[in-house]
Amino acid sequence: METIIKKIDRNNIDQESIEQAGSILKQGGLVAFPTETVYGLGANALDEEAAKKTYAAKGRPSDNPLIVHIARLEDLKEIVTEIPEIVQDIADHFWPGPLTMIFYKNDKVPLGTTGGLDTVAVRMPDDEIARKLILAGGGYISAPSANTSGRPSPTTAQHVADDLSGKIEMILDGGSVDIGVESTILDLTVNPPMILRPGAITKEMLEEVAGEISVDETLISENSTKAPKAPGMKYRHYAPKADLIIVEGEPDESIKAIKQIAYEQVRLGYKVGIIATNESIDQYTTGMIKSIGSRENEKTVARNLYKVLREFDEEEVSYIYSEAFPEAGIGTAVMNRLGKAAGHHVLQASDITRLQKYRRIVFVSNSDNCRAPIAAVLLRRQPLLQEYQILSRGMIVLFPEPLNPRAEELLKAHDIVLERFETSALDEKILGEDTLVLTMQESQKQKILSEYPDAGDVYTLGEYVGNMQEIASVYGQTEEQYEEMYKLIQENVVKLAERLNKEAKNKCQTYT
Fold it and tell me: Is 226 part of any domain?
């Protein structure tokens, strides 16, 4: 089958295309269309055979219920046995919009649509294209997300085409969706009403209108033995092809942990993706890094979630590591979807970060224009098992200067180019318990300990690697003496790398 794709300008909707799509639905066909949440795969909700086609196209288990979409509130009474009084207030506040309500169905709704349940999930989308299509298609359109079952939900028509082209009759391309995660599902067949799936309409928002609202315990704990009652909650869902792991903890701690994991996995030869935020993206140094949005506006995180997961699929990464988000407001929906996509594979940042004592190594010399930068560049070239920020600093640096010309020549003789280097003074901001300070001489060590009592671990380089010989300045001396200094630094740096790697192996683990 060749799938027809029609672009629709929501500011000037082509009614002819809408009528063509509606005709396909009335004849039992399938049409994908945009809503404010994600793209839906539309079928005639009152046609048992159309439901079967929906399940077949998606590869979806037939006991996973479909949501019936309507465009007029008065149409609700035609497919349910009763409408609780509270529904009018809820609908006044949240319909049309990203809220699905569950009722007891009547005989007009086939069991194929409801996954064999005696209840029906109903939603009125807040999207002009969707509502016009629903009316053109007969008024009752079942529409799960328009993707292969289990995959990240589609937020663009291209996502739909990637999964379902050739399997459905038509796609209405209305551009990117606004919200990006599926609707909130509220079960009105129980008292108090129960949220079965979180979305943009939050528990707090519903309680302001309807009073007490409970939450399905299968959302609260992945260890629950009860079967979820809502679409997308019963099976592993929203998942990328790669293994997705969530790293929980304070943002700064999570960033450190993900950096540590990513470095380890890349070192082992895996292709790694990192889900970062606008606030954290510049802090990562390893892997394929994508911002999902801003922590200051978690609506952007929801909008970009599935897009980012699909982009990582295109990049064919092996592992994806994601920061976690506060479970409040729409963040509850984001973490619900992330958790499902990850198969609830969660790592605690603190369990990871405690495995690495040092994250920054600072070499210190008098003026930072020869010995310290040589040590730093040599350590960066060592095969280290863990990632470190490797810096050089000087005890006395009045203003930034380039590398000592003799040192630059020395490095070039060993095929090393240190580009755009400028000297920097030692600053207590870079000192701390996760910083290892290695000086060239004992006098520098003692001065740091006296001036910065909270500096953390400070050693001479030779002392730390078990070689008590100092690395003295050779300023103004011969080429041979510069070469001897270089060899001494190199010898010590190799031993340093060996010690760091030995300590790493004692604590190392594979994060899969």
Answer: no
